[in-house]
Amino acid sequence: PQVSASAAILIEETTGRVVWAKKPEARRFPASMTKMMTAVLALENMRQDSPVAMSETAAGTESSNIGIAPLEQLTMINMVTGMMLVSDNAAAVALAEHMDGSVAAFARRMNEKAKEIGCTDTNFANPNGLPDIHHYSTAADMAKIARYCMQNPVFRDIVSTESAPVRFVYPPDKISVVHNTNKLLGRYRGMTGIKTGWTRAAGGCLATSAERHGVKLIAVVMGAPTADERFNDAEKMLDYGFSHVKMKKAFERNRTKRAVFLRGGTDYRAFVVPTGDVYFPLVDGEKGEKYAWRYDMPQFTEAPVKKGDKAGRIVITYDGKEIGDTAVVYADTVPRGFNFFARVWVEVLAFFMGG
Cα separations (Å) of 310 from 255, 326, 352? Predict the structure, then answer.
């Protein structure tokens, strides 16, 4: 694809495999794509109905598009919805202050999360992406953040919404209808999100996701010359991806079980399964021989374990290089307790297996 952006990347969403890229490691300002991180941290750490107040400081932030006055309140989910759809910078500051007391403290939380996700050249200085010399990322890192965020079903639902009413907690009768700044929603077939961004320093930025015939793609554009060209670039990249990528089922969830051996439980083992069927992306007619997968999880652990809790991951490699993973969760609940047979058997297994 011929794109105008100075940096861009296209990945397959389920594995994270890079399909195409242009200067993916080049450091750029991410603009309001930053709000992806702010949103997912709010969703992971707050109740949806928690009231969030707009402080004087937050209300004075440039580009408060919802129109929230000082001391007015929204629930967290309404604040995040408004922030993501119309890119409200003040809402991002209000969320940061609510969670950590200050923008600086919240930025530290953002950077810790970025490292956890696997970002290698990202530093956040604020929750909204307003220009700051210490606020930067790369197309590759933004794609990792977008992929992580899209695994959250509430986040995914918000960013796929074209318009929504934002209802205030205080004043209780106030409603503001917001419209998504992502012009590809409703225009590009299969579009599912994600977030626009624009400042003079950053140029046109856009993280998009789309799905067709089981193929899920994420395209990130940074440094497009104009706001419109970021959408044109993303369309070209997604078109390229859908014409070059096919998905092949590697294994089915229900046929892929592995035992984890338990100490201190009422049973000596619990089974784990991937969160869903696992597919490999094949590019330009590949057959799949270069793909492999392995479990990254402990073979022995302590009880209790709960059904649905994460136990580890399946790491997917291509030509010997790790390209992505999928979570593995417990298929059983095993409480802590004493079982003589289980205790003896797990220690026998540990002796012979080196556990």
Answer: 18, 11, 26
Local structure of 9: helix, strand or coil: strand
Q: What share of the chain is helix, strand, coil (3-state, %, to 5)?
A: 30, 35, 35
- DSSP for residue 6: S
Neighbour count for residue 308 (Cβ, 10 Å): 11
Instruction: Report how far residue 98's alpha carbon sits from residue 44's, in angstroms, rounded to the nearest whole number.
Output: 14
Entry pTM: 0.88
4-32 pLDDT, tens digit per residue, is 999 999 999 988 999 999 999 999 999 99
Q: Say what angle helices 35-45 and 103-117 make with each other, to 10 degrees.
A: 90
The residue among 347, 321, 345 whose CA lies nearest residue 15 is 321
> Which of 76, 65, 12 shows the shortest CA–CA distance to 196?
65
pLDDT at 253: 82
Q: What average pLDDT does range 231-244 have in this prediction?
A: 98
Most confident option among 108-117, 242-251, 275-284: 108-117
DSSP 305: B
- Are β-strands 310-318 and 321-330 bridged in parallel, bridged antiparallel, or unpaired? antiparallel
Q: How far apart are CA 232 and CA 256, in angstroms?
A: 41
DSSP string, 59-107: HTSS---S-PPTT-EEEHHHHHHHHHHH--HHHHHHHHHHHHSSHHHHH
Question: What single letter denotes the amino acid at residue 207?
Answer: A
Q: Lay out the sheet containing 215-224: strands in order across.
A: 18-22, 7-12, 215-224, 203-212, 191-199
Length of the chain: 355
| Alpha-carbon gap, residue 322 to 181, rounded angstroms | 34
User: Residue 63's pLDDT is what?
Assistant: 81
What are the CA-CA distances from residue 80 to residues 34, 95, 257 (Å)? 13, 8, 37
- pLDDT, tens digit (0-9, with 9 covering 90-100), for 50-94: 999 999 999 999 888 898 999 999 999 999 999 999 999 999 999
Residue range 210-218: average pLDDT?
96
Label residues 327-340 b or e (16+ Cβ within 10 Å = b). Answer: ebbbbbebeeeebe
Distance CA 343, CA 335 (A): 14
